[in-house]
Amino acid sequence: MRRVSEDQPNQQLAEELQSICRAAVGDELRSITYFTDEDVEQLYLRSDLDRTADLFGFAELERNGFEADEKYRNSQLGDYRATIRLFDNGYLTRVTLNDHGVWVTTDSMSIDRFEELSESLRTALSSADG
């Protein structure tokens, strides 16, 4: 794990997030990063990738998700569940709940797998809240 913070997810949550991602994404999994309002920790990085990403920069952008539930409330689209971003070399899926979240990067995969991944991550974050 690449630790960039003092505050980190408990070991059980970290293991659960990794297990969920491996099950939902398989070999297309690139990275898993857990974050809070102040901290960020990379839980997994695939061995063929470099540790060059600016985790603090990514986290700053992805923290906008903490406000998504409130900002999208009463939308005709329904409740906010996740954000999926498309890049040249893969995808980033962000799920936030209350004061913590996780982003997962993947190679290309079907939209159904993104939905399964997002729902499973939200459940894990909810369980960690108690």
Task: Identify the notable features of this structure and list them briefly.
single chain, 130 residues, alpha+beta, Beta-Lactamase, 6 strands, 28% strand, globular, DUF7522
- Helical stretch tally: 4
- Name of the CATH superfamily: Dynein light chain 2a, cytoplasmic
What is the 3D shape? Answer: globular
Structural class comes to alpha+beta
Query: If you consult CATH, what is the topology?
Result: Beta-Lactamase
CATH class: Alpha Beta
Could you tell me the strand content as a percent range? 25-35%
Q: H/E element string?
A: EHEEHHEEEH
Please tell me about this protein's structure:
- By secondary structure, this protein is an alpha+beta fold.
- The protein has one domain (2-129): Dynein light chain 2a, cytoplasmic (Beta-Lactamase, 2-Layer Sandwich).
- 35% of the residues lie in helices and 28% in strands.
- It has helices spanning 11-25, 55-62, 68-71, 111-129, and strands spanning 2-3, 29-36, 40-45, 83-87, 90-97, 100-106.
- It has a six-stranded antiparallel sheet, with helices on both faces.
- β4 (83-87) and β5 form a beta hairpin.
- α1 runs antiparallel to α4 (111-129).
- The longest helix is centred in the C-terminal third of the chain and has 19 residues, at 111-129.
- The chain is globular.
- The two termini are 24 Å apart.
- Mean pLDDT is 88; it is low at 1-6.
